[in-house]
Amino acid sequence: MNVLHIRHSDARTEAALRNVLIFLNCFVSVAALGGGTALTVKPSGSLLGLNTSILGNSGFSDFRIPGVILVICVGLVPLAVAYWLWRRKNFALLMSMISSALLTGWILSETLLIRSLLPLHLFFMVIAILMLLLTIQIGYEDENWHKKYFEQD
Q1: Of 13-17, 32-36, 61-65, 129-133, which range is least confident?
Q2: How far is CA 7 from CA 15, 18, 21, 86, in A?
């Protein structure tokens, strides 16, 4: 059974799902690049209205390292995934799953480190789950998607 109950052979539906997935990856990327850059440029967190006191016992004295991690893992990876999805690269769906996992890992880590769950965390967790479900659905539409990883692009 399909994850989202969509007809198996509708190419327009697959294209629409792919476009939504591309949009979500771009949205996450822009948000992470903006936030991560702000944290890297001003490690005090003041550009985002944050205070280093929320880092508590996280092991970080300021937001520079978390900002760099945010830029690389949650900013650049989804941007690359969006490009690969747009170019229909064979490995794009696998990378989309990894991108969803990175976003989920970031949200969980941040929540645990600052010991607080904010509405923004829930918002991005819903996006991560939606990205994963869309990736699975697109893969389901192409029953042989996993075999493509062994082929050259």
Answers
A1: 13-17
A2: 13, 15, 18, 22
Average pLDDT in the chain: 87
Contact of 18 with 138, CB cutoff 8 Å: yes
Q: How confident is the model at residue 1 (pLDDT cuts 50, 70, 90)?
A: very low
User: Radius of gyration over alpha carbons of the chain, in Å?
Assistant: 17
* Among 143, 133, 147, 144, CA closest to 21: 133
DSSP single-letter state for residue 144: T
Helices (H), 42-91: 64-69, 77-86
Helices (H), 88-145: 92-114, 119-141
Q: What is the pTM of this model?
A: 0.85
User: How many other β-carbons are positioned within 10 Å of the β-carbon of residue 128?
Assistant: 23
